[in-house]
Description:
Residues 4-65 form the HTH asnC-type domain. The chain has 154 residues and is α+β, with helices and mostly antiparallel strands.
Amino acid sequence: MTDLDKVDRAILAALQTDGRMSNARLAETVGLSETPCARRLKRLESAGYIERYRAMLSRSALGYGVVAFIYVRFAVHDRTVATRFEREVQAIPRILSCHNVSGSADYILQVVARDLDDYGSFMRDELRSLPGVTSVESSLSLREIKASTGLPVP
């Protein structure tokens, strides 16, 4: 982060707000002309500060009324089983995120479902059959207070 100046940080912050922003608008937002702005943007992409661009989709418009956080525990901590579990989790689209964590759970998953019946089917038919899973505990989101708006840009 030592090679990022104030303008680089402004570019990163602006793009997190609107990833489809045109170069002309981005340049105006950060106080540059278009060519230097495009050069800086290319450098930030090449240096790995910007991994990719994507759209944020509406869960409700797509019919996902349930968001759950699932605490997954393994009885046996075998690297081969954990690797299989992680590979299979990556292939399930309704699992939005998966974190290997410390504490009483081995993994925490964020999952979406259409409704409670759909969530129950997912738990019974998919999650509990994944390699290594011996117990699961769920917390259902009642209301989202803050959604990810991107990383803080120091």
